[in-house]
Amino acid sequence: MPNSLLAHIASNFISEYENVANSSIAYLLNEYPASQEALKSILGVDNVPTYYVTEMSTDSNGRPDVTGLDGNGCKSVIIEGKFWANLTHNQPNNYLKEITDEGKILFLAPDKRLNSLNIEIDKRTGSSEKVVISSWIEFLSLIEKENNKNHNHQLSSDLLQINELCRKMDTEGMPPLSASDLDPMNGRVASNFSDVIDECNPILREWEYSDFKGTKTTSAKYGHGFYFRGYNFGCSLYFDSRKWFVINNHTPIWLYIGSNDWKKSETISHYLNDYDSFNSFDNDFGIILHEGMDKNQIVDHIVNEVKKVLEYLNRKITNG
Prior knowledge:
- Helix 5 (about 115-125) links the parallel strand 4 and strand 5.
- Helix 3 packs across helix 6 (about 135-145).
- This protein starts with a helix and ends with a helix.
- The mean pLDDT is about 90.
- It has 2 domains: about 5-170, Trna Endonuclease, Chain: A, domain 1 (3-Layer(aba) Sandwich), CATH 3.40.1350; about 185-320.
- The chain has 11 helices and 12 strands.
- It has about 325 residues and is of the alpha+beta class.
């Protein structure tokens, strides 16, 4: 799809992406009943307001992006549109104080951010039923579905514009740099994890069930690791910054476990899932680290986890 006018304008004012998108959502909800029907669907409620305002200030609980006011002027819906900005200290707990007893809060975010945002919000709210998290694209698709019941050409045109803006931010996947992004500690952490992987290498070489013949250490786009064989499995132990971000268990250290020639194996995947379903993803196993571990403890923990999971798989597969 060619770049839309809205996406083009917003891209020239990159810090205003969220403001442009949130204003667009408020406009859609105020102008088109189909948008309100979509909002009912995504929130799981029978009624939503017909009037929405942006950045409505409160005395002490922040300034929500979009607020839906009921017939009494009370806040029955709050919509917080996110691309890559962090949650503020008000979100969402203080917003819960603002809405009516039957009110709902909707967070909209890029697909790539949903998992991490959901975890962060759950930590703050304890999985409140009043908070709903959805992607921009899912919400806009619901509006489009409602519009197809009684087609409005103007709404279709508006949806094309905002869809392209949201897809641009969703697919590009990199927020504007902030001061915290440029903190030298970020580089130090990544470097430390690569060092940790390197320190695991000689320890695993001493393990009687490992074989490093013909294998190598390698760096890749998202991290650093090395290949080896454990029992009769082709393995790779590595640091991966992308998996750290996008996969649900959010750990930087991963162990790939394949067949002897490193090919994926459904059998291994099956038993790996039996071993630890939360940290198993196909033939990849995430090794969870714990706050407060020093470097030596991290290395020992990783090596022990590698041995434990490979011993388990070998026993299961050997014994059938």
